[in-house]
Design the sequence.
């Protein structure tokens, strides 16, 4: 069967990763959460006191960062490894969330991440979610989805997710963080978040996970069969 690349972009906390993960499972494709890569790089910079405003420090440290995804069939799980360490939980920390958008404005950081993302897509059969997947990473992807949802819905979802993971933050903090990240992500110079011209918009404010999956699965099946 023909394998395609599926790019899923959109604002923070729109449920992109959940959708991408479910879609990849249904299609038996690889799932890549590109945001997790920017988060892991941010964690590395924070831990090692790298001043990312100094280009020399960034250039020197990037070759020391090795990112891998470990796929575990049971439970449809994938883990991000930073130099061999599973940092799934650590990259969701508020400190990382507060700094990741700034780190991901840096051209060298983006070039570093994008090169690895493009490598992962060489064999197709991949669903990748992020901010610039349909515009920069895979501009010729067969299916591009741009996900949106009301801000109140997004804040509620992210807050619930954080509570479940035992991360302490107020609703206000979560909302401020989402709005600030959306602003920085949409206004940065290199690969800003924007809808690719040929992307289809999915507003999932009033959709269940199952409903949104079914919609995108139909779009994907048409591309694969067509
Ligand atoms: O998807 P996420 O919220 O985990 O992403 C974290 C940050 O990483 C987001 O605020 C912007 C950045 N990012 C990016 O610049 N490009 C991507 N393809 C994915 C994420």
Sequence:
């Amino acid at each position: 069967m023909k394998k395609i690349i599926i790019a899923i972009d959109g604002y923070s906390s729109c449920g992109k990763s959940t959708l991408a993960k479910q879609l990849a499972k249904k299609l038996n494709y690889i799932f890549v959460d590109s945001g997790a890569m920017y988060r892991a790089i941010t964690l590395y910079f924070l831990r090692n006191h790298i001043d990312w405003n100094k280009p020399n420090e960034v250039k020197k440290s990037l070759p020391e960062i090795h990112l891998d995804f470990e796929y575990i069939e049971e439970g449809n799980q994938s883990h991000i490894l930073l130099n061999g360490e599973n940092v799934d939980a650590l990259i969701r920390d508020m400190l990382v969330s507060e700094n990741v958008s700034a780190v991901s404005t840096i051209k060298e950081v983006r070039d570093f991440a994008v090169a690895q993302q493009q490598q992962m897509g060489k064999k197709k059969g991949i669903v990748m979610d992020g901010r610039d997947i349909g515009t920069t990473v895979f501009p010729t992807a067969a299916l591009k989805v741009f996900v949106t949802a009301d801000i109140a819905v997004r804040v509620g979802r992210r807050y619930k997710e954080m509570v479940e993971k035992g991360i302490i933050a107020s609703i206000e903090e979560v909302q401020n963080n989402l709005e600030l990240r959306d602003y920085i992500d949409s206004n940065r110079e290199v690969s800003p978040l924007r809808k690719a011209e040929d992307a289809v918009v999915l507003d999932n404010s009033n959709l269940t996970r199952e409903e949104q999956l079914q919609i995108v699965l139909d779009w994907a099946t048409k591309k694969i069969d067509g």
